[in-house]
Amino acid sequence: MTRSRLAVWKFASCDGCQLTLLDCEDELLQLAQRLEISHFLEAATAPAPGPYDLSLVEGSITTAQDAELIRQVRAASRYLVTIGACATAGGVQALRNTADVAEYRAVVYAQPQYIDTLATSTPISAHVPVDFELRGCPIDRGQLIEVITAYLAGRTPDVPKHSVCFECKRRGTVCVTVAHGTPCLGPVTHAGCGALCPAYARGCYGCFGPSNSTNLPAFVPLLRRDGLAGPDSVRLLRTFNTAAPEFDTAARQIAEEAEG
Amino acid sequence: MTDEDSRELHLGPLGRVEGEGSLHLVLRDGELAEARLAIYEPPRFFEAFLRGRAHTEPPDLTSRICGICPVAYQLSACRAIEDACGVRVEGQVAALRRLLYCGEWIESQALHVHLLHAPDFHGCDSAIELARTHREDVARGLRIKQAGNAIVELLGGRAIHPVNVRLGGFHRVPTRAELRPLAELLRRVREDAVAAVRWVSGFDFPDAVCDADLFALAEPDRYAIESGTPTVLRGDGDRRGTVNTFPLAEFSAHVVEHQVPYSTALHSRLDGRRHLTGSLARFAMSGHLLPAELLDLAVAGGLGDPRTGAVCRNPYRSIVIRAIEVLYAVDEAMRIIDAYRAPPRPYTPVPARATTGHGATEAPRGLLYHRYTLAADGTVTDAVLVPPTAQNQGAIEADVEHAVRARLAVGPPAGDTELATLSERAIRNHDPCISCSAHFLRLSLER
C-alpha cells in the first residue's frame, strides 16, 4: 500500500498547532505507517520535494515572501488544510491590522528599516483556495486526528460547527453567565475545545473564533449587561481571531459607538 | 563561489528546532571568517500590541509567542504584573504553579531529548527514522512527554495555551482527589525517566566547551524553576568560581539587547559579554541542590559532580542535563501532589496600580524575563520581553564557529554537507526556540 505524502508548513505563528501533531503520542507512530512525512521541519531535517497529498498549514501571511511561498505550497499540494487561528483568522499578530505598523516596528526594533513585514496579518484563505479549515488557538488534538483519518478514508471531516454552549451542556457545566454573571463568548464561539474555560470557572475567551451562526448584534448587549465597558468588549473580541469577519465587524461597531 | 578554499554556505531552513532560522558561513582561504545565525521568523510585534491592553491580559496573550513553552510565558507575565502590583503568591497556590511548570519541563525537555536532539547522536533525520532502530527508546520518550502533558492538561485544561492560569493564581484549583491519578501516572513514568537518563548518558559526545558566561535564576534551597535571583557564573574553566547576582529590577541594565541587520530577533549581551542561559547554566548554578540519587546519575553521565564545584560546559552533554531535569521534575511533581491541600481560594486579587514590575522564570530553554509598566487603571503602557533563545544567539554562533574551526583544522577538506550537519548539531544542542526569539536554519556558506 502506498503511503500518502504529508507536509507541514509554518508561517507567522507560535508552532503550537504543529506541536499538537507531536502531542498525538499514541497515534504518532501508527500514523507514520499510513503517512509518509515528507516535509515537517519541526520534527525532521530532510525535507523531500513535492508534490504532497496532504498539506497542513500553520500560521498567517505577514510578509511578501510568505505570500509567494503559500502559492507554491498550494500548487504542490493535492489537499490543503489550515490548522489554527493564525492560518484561519490571522492570529494574534492580526492586532496590527487596526494599528500603525510603522509605529509597531519602531517600538520593537531600534533599526526598523531592516525589518520586512506587511501592514496586515491575513489568513491563508485570503491568498489561496483552502480545502478545509481547522479552528482553534491551539487546535484540538482529537479534531486534528479526525481531519487526518477522514482524509485517509476519503471522507469529509466530522467537525461540529455549532457554538461552545452545546459542548458546555454536553459536559454538564453550569452556565457561568447565568449562575455567576461572568462574561462569556461561548454563545458566539466555534465548538472544538470541549468547553474548557467554563469548566475551569472562567468565561470563554473565543480562541476558536466565531461559530457558523453568530448573532453578535444581539450578543454584545449581554456583555454590557455582565459588566464589560465598550473597550473591554473590543479587547475581548480582538485577541486570537482578530481578523475573523464576525468578530472584526462587531469590534469596530463597539469601538465606533464608544467614540460616538 | 568556485574557489574551493573560499565559499559561502547558506543552510536552511533549520530542522528540528522551533521556528525558522538559517545559518550563514563565510570561508576565506580555508579559514572560517564568519558565522551568522539569522532568525527570519516573521516579526509578530508582541511588545507593541501589548500596549493598551488590560493588566490581566499578558498571561494569555504572551503565551501565544510560543506553543512549546506557554506556561513559561504565562508565569513570567504573572510574576512581573504581580511584582508591579505588590502581590506575592504563596502557599499551595505557589506550589500548584511549580507543579504546572514541572509539567511543562517534563513535556518540553522530553520532546527535545527524544524527538529533536537524540536523532543527531544516531545519524538520523528524525525521531521516526530513529524509531526504526530504537523504537522502545522513542516510545519511552513519548510516554514521559505524555505524563508532562497530563499535568498541564489537568491543571490548565489543555497542554498548549492552558486556560486556567490567571494573575494571583488560578481560575479553579483541583481537589486532592483530582490530583491522585497524576501521582499514579508519575510513579509509573519515573522508571522511564531514569532509563532515559541512562540511555542518553551512553551517547557518544564530541569534545566542546561553550565559551560564554552562564546565566540562570538561583534559589538558596532548591533547583530554581518559577522564581529566583539572576545569577552569573563567569565563563572560564570547569570549576565553579565566584558567582555574581543582581536584583531582577536591574535586568535591563545588565542584559542589553541590540539589533543586528540579519535577524528579526534582538541579540543581547550580559555586562558586555557573551552569555548562555538554559540547562547548562541551570545545572552549573543549582546542580548541587539536586538529590543524591540524581547527582550520582549525573556523575555516571559524565557531567562531573556539582557538589565538588565541577561545571560541565560541553553543550553536547546538555541532553543528559535535560534528561536529569525531567527526572527531577517528575520527583518534584510527586512531592507537590503528596503535600497538596486545596487552598481556601484559587487566587489572590491583583488590583492595578501605576508602576513597573519585573518577572523572570526558567523556561525549558532558559531564563525568560518580562517587564511591564502599568497606568493606574491597569492599562499596559510599556512591555519588554527577553526570551532565552535571543539571549543565547551569540553563544550559539560562537559554538558553531568553534565546531567549524576545529573541523577545518584537521583532516581532509570538509564538504558543504558535512559542515552543515556539524553546524546544525552545534545549534540544536541549545534547543533554540525561534518562535520565541522573533520576537531556524538556512545555512549559507561563502567560500
UniProtKB/TrEMBL annotation, chain A:
Domain of life: Bacteria
Keywords: Oxidoreductase
UniProt xrefs under PANTHER family: COENZYME F420-REDUCING HYDROGENASE, GAMMA SUBUNIT, CYTOSOLIC NIFE-HYDROGENASE, DELTA SUBUNIT
Occurrences of domain NADH:ubiquinone oxidoreductase-like 20kDa subunit (ranges): 14-150
One Pfam match: Oxidored_q6
Native organism: Kitasatospora camelliae
Lineage, top ranks: Bacteria, Bacillati, Actinomycetota, Actinomycetes, Kitasatosporales
Record's protein name: Oxidoreductase
GO molecular function: iron-sulfur cluster binding; oxidoreductase activity
From TrEMBL, chain B:
Keyword presence, Magnesium: yes
One function term, GO molecular function aspect: nickel cation binding
Binding sites annotated in the UniProt record for Mg(2+): 47, 385, 439
Pfam families per UniProt: NiFeSe_Hases
Record key words, sorted: Iron, Magnesium, Metal-binding, Nickel
Residues noted as binding Fe cation in the record, renumbered to the chain: 69, 436
Binding-site positions, Ni(2+): 66, 69, 433
Entry cofactors: Ni(2+); Fe cation
Keyword Magnesium set for record: yes
Name of this chain's protein: Nickel-dependent hydrogenase large subunit
